[in-house]
Amino acid sequence: MNIVIASGKGGTGKTTLATNLASYLALTHKVVLSDLDVEEPNSALFINGEQKQQTDKFKMIPKWNGECTACGICQEVCAYNAILQLGTHIILHAQLCHSCYACSELCPIDALPMEPVQMGVMSEIKTPVMDLIESKLNVGEEQAVPLIKETTEFIQAQYPDPVIKIYDAPPGTSCPVIEAVKTADYVILITEPTPFGLHDMSLMVGVVRDMKKPFGVVINRYGVGNDDVLDYCKKENIDVIARIPNEREIAETYSRGELLFEKFPKVKSALQNIEQHLFSLEIGVRA
Ligand code: SF4
Ligand code: SF4
Hints:
Layout: E1 2-6, H1 14-25, E2 31-35, E3 50-62, H2 73-77, E4 83-86, E5 89-92, H3 102-106, E6 114-126, E7 131-137, H4 145-158, E8 164-168, H5 175-182, E9 186-191, H6 195-210, E10 215-222, H7 228-235, E11 240-245, H8 248-255, H9 265-280
The site of one iron/sulfur cluster has 14 residues, from helix 2.
């Protein structure tokens, strides 16, 4: 089963929840945790594991072979403005390319063959109780989607059911998070009870509803702000499946890179609520 933890904004506690939920479930189930925040993965900071393997990851981009009849097709079909045709000269902006193959397939003289270009690395980290798969884009690489796709495909192939797969999604509501959510059997939206938290969560609610994914909400730092998130969820008929309290000691423990549920019964209780909720769903998260 695939559980994606997402939020409309960064800094709401996605990694806190992903690492703690994965570690907690790993006490009784087979679990793999994946950090899909490929621009800045940090789950490994909270998981004491040993890196077993690191693999280069590649994406395909066209490489101009120097020939051109100036037909203009490649520039016309590229929806991302990655190709500029100047007479019979072609300029390719590789960082804008989405590897769609259109220019390569449609060039009448096959002047744009696709070639692999290294975009990042994927690390396989083992702990005594679970595996962590963490991918990281090269500095300056702009396209997160291909690396997220490669990572989720690797996990689907290497960790078939009944392994519970927990994905720490990238922040925001754009293409990277949509690629991460595609895999989900269930999405946990984590938010905080503030106007910013509510605004960005409501955007994410629109995304998961459009994608027809079942989802519930976890409120982090519960106790700060106001009840607007609760009121919104009630009005929209959204399950609030757990609340993680706002306590200074919890924040301090997190800042030291330590897991929370072993030390704070309230956090463990929140994880138990999430576990019970997941187990009660028709998708039946059982190992
Ligand atoms: S499609 Fe091929 S021939 Fe046409 S402009 Fe592009 S590179 Fe030149
Ligand atoms: S592969 Fe697609 S996105 Fe990349 S340059 Fe060609 S048409 Fe544009």
